Amino acid sequence: MTTYESMSLMISFSGLIVSVIVLSFTFSQKKK
Q1: C-alpha atoms less than 13 angstroms from C-alpha of 24 in its C-beta half-sphere
Q2: What one-character-per-residue DSSP string does the chain give?
Q3: What is the model's pLDDT at position 29?
Q4: pTM exceeding the 0.85 threshold for the entire prediction
């Protein structure tokens, strides 16, 4: 595995986590 591949993997993984956090945040805001 090259450094570029691992970098792109980490970027996509962090992007997935960010989207999940944003989704949960908007969901909790709508509940109130």
Answers
A1: 6
A2: --HHHHHHHHHHHHHHHHHHHHHHHHHHHHH-
A3: 92
A4: no
What contacts 1, CB < 8 A, 6 or more positions away? none
What are the pLDDT digits (tens) for 1-32?
A: 689 999 999 999 999 999 999 999 999 998 77
Identity (one letter) of the amino acid at 13? F
14: tokens are: 């962090």
Q: Specify the pLDDT at position 2.
A: 87
